[in-house]
Each structure stands twice: as structure tokens, then as C-alpha cells.
Amino acid sequence: MVIRVQESTVRTPWNQSLIKAHETHLRTTLAELVSSEVIVRKIVQSLIRYGIAFIDDVPPNTTMTEMAVRRLFPPMKTFFGEMYTFSDVQDHADTAYTKQYLGLHTDNTYFCDAAGLQSLHCIRHVNGAGGENFFADGLYAALELKHCNPRAFEILTRVSVPAEYIEEGQYHKHSAPIIRVDPVSGEIVQLRLNVYDRAVFDSIPQAQMQDFYESFRVYLEIVQRIENQWSFKLNPGTVVIFDNWRVYHGRHAYTGSRTMTGCYVQRTDFLSKARILGIID
Ligand SMILES: [Fe+2]
Question: What is the per-residue pLDDT for 3?
């Protein structure tokens, strides 16, 4: 008999106390990464299991960040580029390109196929403070919702929520549920959450709006609980990689001048690597 290892069976939902207790599993250095296949496997395993991993001691520039990520996965090319670098200079009509507070979200809800992973590296922050990032495990929150309010969970798996992104030469639009469940296995396969990219909500009749928003409010209350969030300052030298189909990210407002670099990774390239390494089937 062939025993198949589904991605979901190796996932560990986490809240703040659990992820902090497992932090050593999530961290490696660039020197270890470039010299060891075991470390490559460790990072991919952390990304499958917890949806987040860190590479420390990376020189704070785009070239070395790209080298670190390419050791694991090819960057995904979008209209932001392959490697992207952003500050508060508004090169794109995206909220990331500001100094504002950004609540927990996933990226690319407007793409037909949202990036599977995202990497971020703060390569410079001078003359100011703030900008701490915070992360929350959407898998944990969705399972909590399913347990305590099955009706709200069902509504969020069924209602398609439209999102769009418009700038000069670009018009991306996609509609899908906030919690996407595999119709056969019932497993949670993708979480989508971005109030900044919402489009005209024309996918359900007006009469169903109240139920949707009540369910959404209950879910957001779980997602935003302080005990479910992991908050820290990303300093130059540390690359964080996280699952954009699972882990919500946000950041506090900041002052001064800050530059972030990073890239997206396609879901299929992430899972391909995990299969090659024997982590999932
Ligand atoms: Fe984002």
C-alpha cells in the first residue's frame, strides 16, 4: 500500500505562543543555506509546516536577497518585476508603497493565481522608527472559525469576494472565497484576505450581504486576536519567507526612510520543490 503524504497532514496550525516555541526550527543563516542541502530541506519543511521561515546574515541588498531565495525557488515575475524593491515612493498604486499601517492581509487577491510565497527583506531604515511586521496563521484562524461558528465558516468558503488592481497599463481582477476548501477532501487550501484590494461587491444578492459581513466580522475578530499574532521588527540582514496562501501579514506605520526588497514565488514552484525533497506527495 502506498502511503500518501498530503500537504495538509504536515501542516501545524499556530498561534503566537506555539510559533515562538518553535522559532529555532524556522531560522537558518545564508552561509548554512548555501553550503547544505539539509538546510534547504529544513527551510522548505518549515514553510510547509508553519508557513514561515527566516534566513539570517544576508547582506542587506537586493542581489544577495535574490541569491538567498534562488537557492530555494525561482522568483515569480509580475508587473512589480522579479525582485521588487519598495519604499514610500509610490512607484505602484499599491498600499505597500506607503508609510501607512497595513492590517493583516494576503497579497495578489486580484490575480487569478496569487503568489504562493512571498519574501521580504528590510535593507534600510534610517532617521525613523516603527514599521514592525506582524503575522497570523490563517489556517489556525479558519480552523478556529470552523470549530466555533460552522455557519460563518461555510459562508466564507462559499461567497466569492471580488478584488482588483488598476494602474497605468494594468487591470487585474479576480473573485474567489476568503476561505477556499478542496471540494473533495474538505481541506483548507487557500486563504485570501485583502480589504485594500476589494472591488465592487456584485457577486451575491443584497439580501445575503448581512450574513456575509456578520461571518466576515466573526472571522476577523479571530484573525486579529493579539494572542494569534506574531509581531517583530524586520532588521537589515534577515529575509522572511512566508506562505501567501496561508499566513496573513501586516505592518505598523513607520517614520523615516525605509527600503524593502523581496520577491514572490509561484505556488507550483514551491510545492514542486517540497515534492522533490520528499516533504509532500
Ligand atoms: Fe502585502
Answer: 47
Adjacent-strand bridge partners of 232: 133
pLDDT digits (tens, 9 = 90+) for 145-165: 999 999 999 999 999 999 999
Q: State pLDDT tens for residues 68-88.
A: 999 999 999 999 999 999 888
Distance 207 CA to ligand 1 centre (A): 32
d(CA 263, CA 81): 8
Number of other CB atoms surrounding residue 24 within 10 Å: 7
- Neighbouring residues of 278: CB distance < 8 A, sequence distance ≥ 6: none
Looking at residue 134, what is its pLDDT? 98
CA of 94 to the centre of ligand 1 (A): 9
Q: Where are the alpha helices (DSSP H) in the chain?
A: 16-21, 23-26, 30-35, 37-49, 62-70, 138-148, 150-158, 209-223, 267-276
pLDDT band at 1 (very low <50, low <70, confident <90, very high): very low
CA of 257 relative to ligand 1 center, distance in Å: 18
Residue 196 Cα to ligand 1 middle (Å): 10
Alpha-carbon span 158 to 152, nearest angstrom: 10
At 6 the pLDDT is 58
Quick check: 241 and 116 in contact, CB under 8 A? Answer: no
- Cα(91) to ligand 1 centroid in Å equals 15
Which pLDDT belongs to residue 7?
A: 62
Residue 35 CA to ligand 1 centre (angstroms):
31
Q: Are 111 and 88 in contact (CB under 8 A)?
A: no
Q: In this predicted structure, which of 7-11, 150-154, 176-180 has the lowest mean pLDDT?
A: 7-11
> Distance between CA 263 and CA 15 in Å, rounded?
26
The CA 279 to ligand 1 mean position distance, Å, reads 27
